[in-house]
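[step 3/7] inverse_fold.run input=structure_tokens len=308
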């Protein structure tokens, strides 16, 4: 589904950050745009295990298992809880997030005997790397899945929600079955609108836009056209399809509600559930009714009504 352009006025640039028009060549401006676009907020990076522990769920670290796998950006850190024979649910945070954000959902899933794995994406939390991207998120998730076993469900927030769908499409392309059910929370339906908004804020030209995509494709070895849910859903559907719960808040100021329409229309087995008023973009992860709806979905129980 083609969504209308995001016409919200962008936030002004900080005084010490020049617009992309400052660079004389398109190539140099695009390289600077890529650097800015793929550098997460510094607060999410290079935290130590000692810093991580107080913020983790109540069962961390006493019986949580911390492991690392090697990804394209270096070590990918992840944690697991629960018994090996319980259904596995893997959770991936969004841009600027970390695995600690899943505390409420992880506890609720453990209460109904589901094994939980959360990871830190590249350049986030305890994982290695200086840059991050949606393909990088997807690749890290795939590596964690390889190390964790067959997932019953994948849950992703914001950019992590889109990466979850990309991981399902990748597994379908590889002939892996059965495909897991999926939950996206406050997720975009593609990276086109976030990039366009980014370029408007940083005053990038159309030529910079084209060159930026080329540099991103070369750096992370992907095709830009494969990152929207139309393409991802086609791959997943060819592999047998996967049910998707789209959770979104009407007052999400970072990823507009209209993005959920793209997800629901593009993914054949998708249903949308509107979060309670006031859930926003981040608070939604600890909103009790959201947590309960996700647990019910993972357990195969239908929704009685929206959360509003």
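[step 3/7] decode complete -> sequence:
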């Amino acid at each position: 589904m083609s969504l209308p352009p995001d016409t919200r006025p962008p936030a002004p640039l900080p005084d010490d950050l020049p617009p992309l028009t400052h660079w004389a060549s398109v190539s140099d401006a695009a390289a600077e745009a890529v650097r800015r676009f793929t550098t997460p907020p510094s607060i999410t990076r290079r935290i130590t295990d000692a810093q991580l522990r107080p913020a983790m769920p109540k069962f961390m670290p006493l019986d949580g298992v911390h492991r690392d796998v090697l990804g394209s950006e270096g070590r990918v850190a992840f944690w697991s809880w629960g018994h090996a024979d319980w259904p596995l649910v893997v959770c991936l945070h969004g841009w600027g997030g970390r695995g600690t954000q899943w505390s409420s959902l992880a506890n609720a899933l453990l209460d109904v005997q589901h094994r939980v794995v959360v990871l830190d994406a590249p350049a986030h939390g305890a994982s290695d790397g200086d840059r991050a991207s949606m393909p990088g998120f997807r690749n890290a998730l795939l590596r964690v899945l390889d190390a964790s076993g067959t997932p019953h469900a994948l849950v992703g927030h914001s950019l992590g929600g889109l990466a979850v769908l990309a991981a399902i499409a990748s597994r379908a392309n590889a002939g892996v079955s059965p495909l897991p059910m999926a939950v996206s929370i406050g997720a975009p339906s593609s990276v086109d609108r976030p990039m366009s908004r980014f370029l408007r804020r940083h005053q990038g030209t159309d030529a910079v836009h084209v060159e930026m995509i080329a540099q991103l494709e070369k750096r992370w070895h992907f095709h830009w056209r494969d990152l929207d849910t139309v393409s991802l859903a086609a791959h997943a559907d060819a592999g047998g399809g996967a049910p998707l719960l789209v959770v979104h808040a009407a007052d999400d100021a970072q990823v507009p509600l209209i993005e959920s329409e793209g997800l629901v229309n593009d993914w054949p087995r998708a249903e949308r559930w509107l979060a309670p008023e006031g859930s926003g973009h981040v608070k939604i992860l600890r909103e009790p009714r959201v947590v309960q709806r996700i647990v019910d979905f993972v357990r195969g129980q239908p929704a009685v009504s929206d959360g509003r």
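[step 4/7] annotate
Residues 51-63 have pLDDT under 50 and may be disordered.
The chain has one domain: 20-298.
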